[in-house]
Amino acid sequence: MKLSTKDKIVEAMVELVHEKGYKGATTRELAQIAGVNEVTIFRIFGNKKGIVDAIIQKYALIDLIESIFQEKVVWDIEKDLKMLVREYQALLEQKRTVILLSLKETGQFADLDELLKRIPRKYTEIITDYFTKMIEKGKMNTVDSYVIATNFVFINFGYFLMKTKINSEAEELSIDDFIDKNINSFIKMLQ
After folding, report:
1. How far apart are CA 148 and CA 191, in angstroms?
2. In terms of domains, do 47 and 71 share one?
3. What gap in Å lies between CA 113 and CA 172, rounded to an integer?
C-alpha cells in the first residue's frame, strides 16, 4: 500500500525523532527521509508541532482497546485475561515507535504525555470494570478490582518495556512464556 504524502512525513518524523529526539529533528532532514520538499511539510502541517499532533491522532490506542474488549470478552477469566494480554501486547507493539518516542520526549509535548497516560488509564479502567463484573458474577475471588487491575496493567506494560527497551539484546521471553510464567500465576490468585 502506497503511503500518502502526509503519512510519509508522519512516519519519517517518528523515525527521525526516535533517532535524534525532537530538537535534533530538522525539517530539512525530515523532508529528505520522507522524500518530499521541505515546503510541503510546512504547507501540510504548519510546523514540527503540527506533525506531532498528527502522530498523536494516528497512534491513539484508546478506541482500539475498548472495541477489542467489547468484541472478544467471553467472561471466562483465564481465556479473557490471556486474550487481553495478547491483544494489548499486539497494540503496544503496533504503536511501539510512538510509545518509545513519547517516553523519550517526556515533558516536551503535553499532548504526547497525555496520550501516554491515557493508554494505561483506559486499560486499567476496562480491566477494573471487568474484575468488578467477574466478582459480581461469582467467577473470581472478592478483591479490590482497581488494585488488581493496576497490577495487571503494570505486568503487561513492564513486559512490553522489558522486551523493547531493557532486554532487547537478550533472549526474549516469548508472549507464550510470559503468559505461562506470569499471567497463569496471576489468574490462579484470582480464582
Report:
1. 13
2. no
3. 28
Mark whether 100 and 186 lie in a shared domain.
yes
Question: Of 131, 178, 128, which Cα lies nearest the Cα of 158?
Answer: 178
The number of beta carbons lying within 10 Å of the beta carbon of residue 13 is: 24
139-178 in b/e burial notation, b at 16+ Cβ within 10 A? ebeeeebeebbbebbeebbebbeebbeeeeeeeebebeeb
Please state the pTM of the whole predicted model: 0.73
- Mean residue pLDDT of the chain comes to 85
pLDDT value of position 101: 74
**Nearest Cα to Cα of residue 13 among 28, 32, 26, 30:** 30
CATH at 17: 1.10.10.60
